[in-house]
Each structure stands twice: as C-alpha cells, then as structure tokens.
Description:
single chain; alpha+beta; Thrombin, subunit H; 3 domains; 14-stranded mixed beta sheet; 8 helices; flat; disordered C terminus
Amino acid sequence: MPSELTLSLMVGMGLDPAPRAVMEALTDVSVSVGAGGSTPSGFDLKFATSKLSPITTQLLPTGYFDPPTRIVIAATLSGSTTVLMDGVITQQDVVPSDEAGKSVLSLKGEDLTRMMDVIDFSSMIAYPAMPAEARVALILAKYLPVYGIVPLVLPSVLINVPLPNETVPQQSGTDLQYINTLAEQVGYTFYLQPGPAPGMSMAYWGPKLQMAIPFLATPPPLAIDWDGRSNVESLQFSFDGFKKTRFFVWVQLPDVPVPLPIPVPDVTPLSPPLGQKDPLPLKVTPLSGLSGYNPIQAAAIALAKTADSANVVTGQGTLDVLRYGSILPARTVVQVQGAGITFDGEYFVSTVTHTIKPGSYKQNFTMQRNRLVGGNSADPASYGLGQQLPAFSSSAATATPALPSPGPALPVPAPAGPAVPVNTGASTASSLPASPAG
C-alpha cells in the first residue's frame, strides 16, 4: 500500500523547510501533547549522524540547532495536514559511536510557552483597573507578531474589575507563571494549541472543557475486539473507586443560626456526564484553601476541583495512525466500542504522544471520564452499544461529617462558557514523504 503520510519539519523564525540532508538523517520523532496547565507539550527529534555528515560539519557549528531555535512539526495524512508541534529547542544531546553513521543527535524542546517563561516581571508591570481577562489578553498580545500566537481568552463567571483607589494588580513572576496563576484563581486552564497553519498557534485561557465540540469533526471511534473493524493495537481501562470525593462548602443562609454544609456538584455544563452510572463517592471532605478568594472565584475553583476528582475511569492505549485512518487529537472527546458495555462510550482524550519513525506512525493516548456504562447510540454498529440500559438511580446520599469549626460561607453557582474551537491542520509549504507503511 503506498504511503499516505508525509512529515514536514520547519526550522528557524522564517519557518524554512529543513534541508534534505536533515530529513534523510531524521530517524525518530516524538511529540507529547498534554491537557494544559503547568506541564507544557514537548518534542524529541533524533538524527543519525557521522563525523562527515552535514549536520556535524556545517549545521551544528553554525548554530542551526542552537536553543531557542524554533521548530514546527506537521504531518499530512490523506491530504489533510495537522500541525503537531510549534515550539523551540531547549537542549542538544550528542551520542558519538565508533560505527559509521551510528552517532545520534537528539534535539529536545517544548512548545512556545517556554518563551513566555524567560523574563521575571515581578513588580515591574502594573495593571490598573484591569480584570484578569484583560491582563491575560494584554500579556499574550506581544507574542502575536513574533510567534503568531492568537489569544482566545474566555471571560470568567464574574469579571472582577479592581478599583484603582483600592488596589492596583501587579505582575508576579514570568508571563507564563502569572497567566497560570490568574487561571487557577478562577478554576481555568491555559495551553497553546498549534495550528491551523504552520507558524500559528491558539493560546487558550478558559474553563477546563470536557465535552464534544458540536461544529468540529469528531475523530473516528476507537474499536477493540471488533472483528475486522478493530483499529487500535491495545486498550485498557481502570476504575479507581476511591478517587471520587464529595466536596462541600459551608454556607450561611438567612435566618439560619448555623452554617450548613452544601455539596459541590461534580457535573457542570462544561463537564457533562460521559456515561449512565454515577459511581458512589467514597470520600467526603470540606474544601480548604479558598479563604483568599472572593465567593465567585472560590465557587469556580470548587467546581473545577470537584470535576477533576470525578474522573474515576481512565483508559490508555496505542494505535497505528495508518490503520486508524486519522490523527487522534488531544483535548477532545472520542467514542470507544468493543470494550464491553461498562467501558464503551465517550471519553475525554487528555494526553497524546506521537511516535513517528520511517514507515511507522503510532500514538499512545490516555483518556478519562466521570461515569461508568456509556450512553445509548441509535447506530449500534457505529458505537458498539446494542441497547439502552435502564436508568441508573442516583448515588445514595453520603452522610456529611461535622467539622470542628465552620469555614467561610460560599455560594455555589454553576459556571457557563462558550464552546472552544479546536484547530485543524492546513497544508504545509514542503514535506518529505515517509517510508512506505508495512
């Protein structure tokens, strides 16, 4: 079967295609994409070199691969191009060998958030009368002309505008540290999504979405033990019965002499149930560490923390992209079929690792969801569910223990936010075909 995959590598601020000698020496590409937050996405490129190769005699001495050289990695499958990584080199590793052509050059790097973490602006920049959303947008604006980073900043539940006569917010730490701090204060997350075209990225600052995006193409279902339609090499699941925690906050109601414990819901419009059976929470604990936030911020953080603890079902697996017929993206929802009715259904893809070698393109992925037993499908052949299960009753109410002393009284509103687009790939200017698939 002719290869349907081509790999593109662009180097430098001008994003020039890598020389042919570089592409011929490239033996291994690894790209790791996470769900955002404090852990950046990264890459690792390995090249076969020798004493007389152009990489050793020309490119390395002239600084062609010196940090922080920009690297863009894109893969084209069946005419559709996906930008896998837009980042910078952070480290070089060289492993010489006595055998000709067996020396290895390894280039490690991170996404462009690395360039947001180089200058500490503590007490150097003030943001008078600017809410967190405006501060984040202003910080990200300076990276647009240099790196093509387009901000996508979603307002929080309640925009808090600090009065200049009361307080003037000042930046603490680097741009990346400050952006992540502002995200944590409202239960948000921050990450860079490369694409849709090489040289462009979307900087997402908003709620932790765990839902399908209706107007975007849904990745094909992951099928295991499904006769000739199986498209994954391995798939396994785990149910952690003690992970789910019933968090509660103390709320002081009018005309009630004592504060009352109010449970925080683990399902919101941004984190809907991905199944029918709600596991019983086996741990009950009050939320702590919220005294420094206003009530709306505290409620948003509480909802985000509760939603995270509700993801008691996890899955991990490996697939061959040429067999799967598509590139599985991170931070999206995918269907699983053939794993049995308990673990079939929708999952949120939290991390993806791309491993590309000559003639091979595989992905390792992890998934999670907050329910057991997937929902019903009108087409059992498409989603692997033959019948709709009877409705499961809600988990029995868990007794809430009394605390030695009440905590702060907090309202618990349900936040709402718009759906977030996930970029698709666009064609690259040049590409080098991979070796034919097996």
